[in-house]
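@channel anyone free to eyeball this complex?
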Amino acid sequence: MRLVLALPVVWLLLLLAAPLAIVVLIAFAVPADGVPPYSIGFTFDNLWLVASDPLYRDALVRSIRVAGVSTLICLAMGFPMALAISRAAVRWQNPLLLAVMLPFWTGFLMRINAWIGLLADDGLIVRMLGVSRLLYTDTAMYIGIVYTYLPFMVLPLYARLSRLDPALMEAAADLGASPWRVFCRVTLPLSLPGVAAGAALVFVPAIGEYVIPALLGGPQAQLIGKVLWEEFFANRDWPTASAVAVWLLLVLVAVPAAAVRLRRRFSRL
Amino acid sequence: MTSLLNIAGLTIRYGATTALDHLDLAVNRDELFVLLGGSGSGKTTLLRAIGGFVRPDAGRIVLDDTDLSALPPHRRPVNTMFQAYALFPHLSVSANVGFGLRQQGMSRAATRQRVEAMLALVRLDGFGSRRPAHLSGGQQQRVALARSLAPNPRLLLLDEPLSALDQSLRRDTRAELVRMRRSLGVSFVLVTHDQEEALEMADRIGVMRDGRMAQVGTPADLYERPANRFVAEFLGAANILPCIVDGTAVALPALGIVVRTARPFPNGPALLALRAERLRIGGEPLPNAVDGLVTDSSYAGDVLSVSVRLADGTILRVKRPLADGLGSASIAPGSAVRVGWQPEACMLLPA
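replying in thread with the prediction:
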């Protein structure tokens, strides 16, 4: 019995805490030629370099912006979807949710490759819209990110919206609120915990996204995930790569923490 | 004086089932009208139709001179107090009560004043800044009442307003609702399945059955002069015996006796309804009487419930008041008794 209870702790230590501790350790280490390419030490140089060098700072700021904009687009698209599914006839709700999750049945890289074909210069979308090009631009990158992470926004929103008591919306209408004001004063405020959960689920993976910008985005788009990859594999500068990872982690901890605080304020309801 | 609310030919169907079937109803000004019925009788559907939450398939709902049928809920000058209260969990008590006022475009200052007056009316002064979740069930009920009354509706609809309260609180709240309604002069249409609640609170009751009005009248009308077997059995406990009416003589063929009634009724086959508490066991002789054997008697505090088997096997239920020294006087099963009643106690119903 004790062993069963201890097992999750062991997994957590082994799979989460230990790798994290190593990354933090290397972030404070001194770069060195050799294998491994660092020697144990304690210096703030790596963290300071990442914070002060425009290359890293700009990539981080750009990543935050890309993830933020993607989250907002996912929210703008996902909220009406979640609302529509939650208000659909009960027998339609599960098929519609299944449709939202259907893309996960196919491999991620395969689907991104399909987008390359769709967005290509001689592809369907470019010809239909009459634009000069889409592939290898920011637009294509956003399309890829929003496409990939939209279900992560829709599902928590749906979970929240479907649990709202319809009598609350009726009560608001009964007291003279037009459908738009019912939405603003009752539906939207009560769905905020779902918004926070969805935003965190989209923002966190989007900020470190490496594959989609590399495959769909332009060459000028230096995002933090790509910088990290290059420091580690191309430059073999493990301490700097680790420092980038630590900074990224700090941003990622700050955002869900804000979301959790927001949720706590509303979960007392 | 014309009535406040007029409903004519209201029909509502859900797929194959008919919830309301060509229903007509008039509700007066300054009255508490109770819609009474079992589940599936259509009473809640009728309330929701007046509020605007279900669309009628046919018929009209007219308030004063305004036809409500085409108006969405937020344009109707009626408010609803919802069964589970439906208080907004993210808003304070004050914001809940003031919600309707703000929608009407009332200024913040005026809203604050009116909210405070409403909270005082329901004896919740000082609770304005709390969240509904931090109130007791009785307090939530009063917030819901204050919220639905705040916009000054011409008609208030109450959907089982007391069903979520415990027994003792429910009794006090009945009287309080009635008193508050009188002082405000607003008409209430109240839905309930509790006949005791209906009799005690209502100015008039509409008993509903299968999407139609079985009978509309004052509590005394319905209790003393039920129009049909359904109403007689739904309100109070009634014994129903088949009979044949001839003038004031009522023959009970199964028992081979004839009893007297005080009220005229068309001659021919009919049903005789006798209220359990209008029947007497023993005592001085009464104009109508029938003999039987006691099969069961149980003590219920204020009355002794006695079952008497008649010659043809019919069980007659009698409620014997336990007052003035009768104490717990029980009647042993198997005792031969004579059950008597006055001609006025005979209620005749169409067969």
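from a first look: The interface with chain A takes residues 51-53, 72-75, 79-80, 82-84, 86-90, 99-100, 103-104, 131, 133, 147-148, 151 of chain B (CB under 8 Å).
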